[in-house]
């Protein structure tokens, strides 16, 4: 992808529809939806993306963040935090999202306008900040957390031990220090005092303290939320803005749709343009996946972009937004863009709601104009696109 091409203006990286035989061999790339989902759901498949193998190997962190963990303790952590993400919880967050959007939209009225990814970053930061318990509406805090979470190294498992990447990893650790010192450490102490005084668990930080996470372990979990929840949502909202802006009919439909319909449009856009385009798993015991034998130690790469356009699942208009689809049971409108199985994204519905509210507000203004951009970049840490320099103004 060049700097000026949007993700879905290129074809999926390697669509091999209907490839025969057993696909799980020799660091195999999986392009089909069925085997991809089976791999993500399998008990023997460990997280191998987002630097998980390198963190596990270093052994510094005993209680691994939920994204890196495996087995009963990981499932327990998911159960403990599930209440932040239920459909009722998402509805309860909505007035807060509305309020944040009303504040943010004002910046688009300035003569110089505003960058869409700046709006989406502030919104996503504030929402994840509420879930986590870190005040990310403070621009300095948001900047420090993002600086620490935004890994610039390549998270491809076969590359992460290379010299260049190792240097970048060490630099990332150094970047943690300001966030640890100024944000997380004081918060952690305050949470300990709150719980010791008999207070209830209010957010993720309280949950981590209640579970005896050390401050470093808590920092790692918080940064997981920041990269999993803030960086992704930032890009997804900016991309969706551009896709809807470009397509006049879709824009008209989006503005007049109900919240539910808008969310369906956004899920289709996410299917076509997954922010995390590649997921990785390492098989830790000889296993059978989707009817195929897989040897212990195999690395599996799931090409989400290709799996989400698998003609077996999306036989018609698979490269287009189509709101009249009937999907087979077990297939979500966004395909595997939020993953599947034990690591499936808990925050997906929240991200979709944020996008639906912010974009509806923006597109409802007839004086909305695009002043410049976008410029497309890649973030190899999360294996996704970045939408930059998309400047808009409401006049
Ligand atoms: C459009 C926005 C988002 C996208 C595309 C996205 C995508 C994903 C994907 C693909 C995974 C699974 C990774 C894997 O299987 O290897 C994941 C996991 C996760 N996401 Fe999201 N996410 C988004 C928003 C959010 C939000 C808003 C939050 C929090 C408020 C969040 C929190 C998490 C967490 C904690 C995990 C790890 C879950 C686990 O391993 O058990 N995400 N996300």
UniProtKB/TrEMBL annotation:
Gene3D superfamilies: Cytochrome P450. Keywords: Heme, Iron, Metal-binding, Monooxygenase, Oxidoreductase. Coiled coil: none annotated. InterPro entries: Cyt_P450, Cyt_P450_B, Cyt_P450_CS, Cyt_P450_sf. PROSITE patterns: CYTOCHROME_P450 (PS00086). Pfam families: p450. Belongs to the cytochrome P450 family. This is Cytochrome P450(BM-1). It comes from Deinococcus xinjiangensis.
């Amino acid at each position: 992808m060049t700097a000026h091409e949007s993700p879905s203006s290129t074809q999926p990286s390697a669509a091999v529809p209907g490839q025969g035989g057993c696909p799980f061999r020799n660091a195999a790339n999986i392009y089909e939806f069925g085997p991809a989902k089976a791999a993500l759901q399998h008990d023997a498949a460990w997280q191998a993306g987002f630097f998980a193998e390198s963190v596990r190997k270093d052994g510094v962190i005993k209680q691994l963040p939920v994204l890196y963990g495996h087995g009963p303790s990981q499932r327990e952590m998911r159960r403990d935090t599930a209440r932040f993400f239920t459909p009722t919880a998402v509805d309860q967050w909505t007035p807060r999202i509305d309020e944040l959007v009303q504040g943010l939209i004002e910046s688009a009225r300035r003569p110089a306008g505003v960058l869409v990814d700046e709006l989406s970053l502030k919104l996503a930061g504030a929402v994840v900040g509420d879930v986590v318990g870190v005040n990310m509406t403070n621009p300095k805090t948001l900047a420090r957390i993002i600086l620490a979470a935004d890994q610039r190294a390549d998270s491809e498992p076969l590359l992460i031990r290379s010299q260049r990447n190792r240097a970048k990893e060490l630099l990332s650790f150094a970047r943690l220090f300001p966030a640890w010192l100024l944000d997380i450490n004081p918060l952690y102490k305050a949470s300990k005092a709150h719980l010791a005084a008999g207070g209830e668990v209010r957010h993720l930080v309280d949950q981590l303290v209640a579970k005896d996470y050390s401050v470093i372990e808590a920092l790692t979990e918080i940064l997981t939320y920041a990269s999993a929840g803030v960086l992704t949502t930032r890009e997804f909202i900016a991309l969706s803005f551009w896709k809807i802006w470009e397509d006049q009919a879709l824009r008209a439909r989006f503005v007049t749709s109900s919240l539910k319909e808008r969310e369906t449009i956004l899920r289709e856009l996410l299917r076509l343009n997954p922010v995390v385009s590649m997921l990785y798993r390492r098989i830790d015991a000889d296993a059978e996946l989707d009817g195929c034998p897989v040897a212990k130690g195999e690395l599996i790469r799931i090409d989400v972009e290709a799996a989400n356009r698998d003609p077996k699942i999306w036989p018609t208009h698979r490269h287009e937004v189509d709101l009249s689809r009937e999907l087979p049971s077990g297939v979500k409108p966004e395909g595997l863009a939020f993953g599947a199985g034990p690591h499936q994204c808990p925050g997906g519905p929240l991200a979709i709601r944020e996008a639906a509210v912010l974009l509806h507000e923006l597109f409802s203004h007839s004086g909305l104009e695009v002043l410049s951009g976008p410029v497309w970049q890649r973030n190899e840490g999360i294996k996704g696109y970045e939408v930059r320099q998309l400047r808009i103004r409401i006049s």
